[in-house]
Amino acid sequence: MHLALFIIFAGLCVAGALNLLLQRHPINSALSLIVVMSSLAVLYLLLGAEFLAAAQVIVYSGAIMVLFTFVIMLLNAGKEERTHGSKLAYIAGFPGAAALLGLLAFIFISRRSSFGQARLGEYLATTSDLSRVLFKDLLLPFEVTSVLILIAILGAVALARKEH
Amino acid sequence: METHLIPFLLINLAKVIVVVVIFLMSVAYTVLLERKLVGRIQNRWGPSRVGPFGLLQPLVDGAKLFLKEDLMPEAVYRPLYILAPIIALGCALMSISVVPFGSDIKWHGVQLFEISDTNIGLLILLGITSVGVYGIALSGWSSNNKYSLLGALRASAQVISYELALGLSLVGVVLRSGSLRLRDIVGVQATHGLLSWNFFGGFQFVAFFIYLMAAYAETNRSPFDLPEAESELTAGYHTEYSSMKFAMFFMAEYGNMITVGCVATLLFFGGWTSPFGNLLPQPHNQILISLLSIFWFVIKVFGFLFLYIWVRGTLPRFRYDQLMGFGWKFLVPVAVANIVVTSFCIGLRLPMQ
Amino acid sequence: MVPIAYYLVLSAILFSIGVAAFLIKRNIITVFMSIELMLNAVNLAFIAFSRQWSQVTGHLQVNGQIFVFFVMVVAAAEAAVGLAIIIAVFRARNTLNVDSIDLMKL
């Protein structure tokens, strides 16, 4: 069952990512990215990271991507235009990305035997396991992220405000 | 688990079908309840012609919506226009899957009153709620209509803003029970009946009222129904929808109402536990226990729906800037204060380690 | 049972698609979305490695998952500021094409 679920959701991930690449309209790209993120949440669950699966749905698909769609709707973004700059990107982009993929996949596949097998239900990281580490060992970084968020809010307000 | 895959799938499919049928029926009758109650509030009768006391009205309404012509306006962006109501209804149906309806009764190892019992039930509910906003946002954008777009923009801004207050109001409850599993949260409130409910004994009534107001905004219900304010936006995001697609939005709205009622019941009013606690003798018969638990759960959810409709019938609509100001400047600070006070109380009561 | 290497290969595929989209896409919002895709691919790799580390040591290790948590926080902050910048750029230049936003001054 684990393999079946993995194949289904990995397929959805790859299809969504390719759709993001191929679609011309930003809102279609945004929707395919939501598909990718939601299927990644299922993969996190399969790996036993249940809190992060929920956080993935709430933070990524529920908040960040809503902001993206909101901005696309607000700016009424149309289909993207092809310009001369994109030709160079085509020549350099696809081979570069393919080379990166080939390298990474080669390393992972050739060292496959040194990685283990993931079984369902093993090493389930519950919310309390995660929070014990987060609020005891890593309290300072956690507090610093809250300052980061505060700065981001202030920056976003300052940037998006209309000048009078 | 891999050996018993087929029975596992069949049992869960059966549970899903039963729950969805009951859920959709209750959605239909919530609509009737609303029409009846709003009617009485406005000194009218409400629907009374079809069947005794108008009880068959939902079936007739459903048939009417099915038989109407499904219009497809010229200028819409077709794929998203069709996808949007499906997302809205799908999220409304999905969120009921982690809600436990009755006490923990197993029949041959199968949990009877819940589709799935997860450790992170509350987070899953929040996640599905936050995905549900796409239904509204995409419907407004793809309709290619100014009123729809304005309604959708209002709705998505409103839902994102109030999600914050909603999530923060639940933290106090989670702190008190120390778990995100809905059954554990109810279990904490089970011992002394009314007195141990989070609303009374847990002193979470501030959190409950924040939750209540945020939930009204999340489900786009009056007095926060600006996304579909008919005096300004015709019908908001579903202006261009007709027939079955409109019915799907309609069902999603009332389905969300019921889910919100279920969650409020579970988190603040002790779920399926009796308000008398151990004062009444506990029955020993399993069937009696399960019937009683279902009875209390349904009564509490019904009370919540009644409150919902009562508010709709009496309060006027907010203005948009007032709505945003209320959410950010009032609800969020109060929710944070509630978290601070609750965690102080819990911290003082715990033995020092 | 799925080899953890499969999860890592999936993460590599998603990351490369993100790189390609980042280079090819001309709409600034889509470019930004491909950054999010790359971050997500990295998150998947972190969780897979955290699982592998648990298996090597024999008990649960959550440090990789904590890292993902921080990546999510940073991504949320980044999205808020980035989208605000996009709105500001659109107000100033009235376009979303990255090729027409190549001047440093207005």
Properties at a glance:
heterotrimer; A: 164 residues; mainly alpha; Four Helix Bundle (Hemerythrin (Met), subunit A); 6 helices; 1% strand; B: 353 residues; two-stranded antiparallel ribbon; 11 helices; 2 strands; 65% helix; globular
What is the compact description of this entry?
The complex is a heterotrimer of chains A (164), B (353) and C (106). Chain A has helices at 2-22, 26-46, 50-75, 85-110, 127-136, 139-160, and one strand at 117-118.
Q: Pick out the low-confidence regions of chain A.
A: none
Oligomeric state: heterotrimer
Q: Count the DSSP helices of chain A.
A: 6
Q: Which structural class fits the helix and strand makeup of chain A?
A: mainly alpha
Which CATH C-level class of the largest domain in chain A is it?
Mainly Alpha
Tell me the CATH architecture of chain C.
Answer: Orthogonal Bundle
User: Which overall shape of chain A is indicated by the principal axes computed on the Cα atoms?
Assistant: globular
For the residues shown, what is the average pLDDT of chain C? 86
Rounded Rg of chain A? 20 Å
- How many E strands of chain C? 1
Helix content percent band of chain C: over 70%
Please give the share of residues in helix of chain A: over 70%
Order of helices and strands of chain C: EHHH
Order of helices and strands of chain A: HHHHEHH
The CATH homologous superfamily of the largest domain in chain A is named: NADH-ubiquinone/plastoquinone oxidoreductase chain 6, subunit NuoJ
Strand content of chain C: under 5%
CATH topology of chain C: Helix Hairpins
CATH architecture of the largest domain in chain A: Up-down Bundle
What does this structure look like?
The complex is a heterotrimer of chains A (164), B (353) and C (106). Chain A has two domains: 1-77, Four Helix Bundle (Hemerythrin (Met), subunit A) (Up-down Bundle), CATH 1.20.120; 126-164. Helices cover 77% and strands 1% of the residues of chain A. Chain A has six helices and one strand, in the order H-H-H-H-E-H-H. Chain A has helices at residues 2-22, 26-46, 50-75, 85-110, 127-136, 139-160; one strand at residues 117-118. The longest helix of chain A has 26 residues, at 50-75. The mean pLDDT of chain A is 84. Chain B is mostly helical. Chain B has one domain. In chain B, strand 1 (106-107) and strand 2 (110-111) form a beta hairpin. The longest helix of chain B has 37 residues, at 5-41. Chain B is globular and about 65 Å long. The two termini of chain B are 40 Å apart. The mean pLDDT of chain B is 82. Chain C is built from three helices and one strand; from the N terminus they run E-H-H-H. The radius of gyration of chain C is 18 Å and the shape is elongated. Classes of the chains: A mainly alpha (164), B mainly alpha (353), C mainly alpha (106). At the A-C interface, helix 1, helix 2, helix 3, helix 4 and strand 1 of A face strand 1, helix 1, helix 2 and helix 3 of C. Strand 1 (117-118) of chain A pairs antiparallel with strand 1 of chain C.
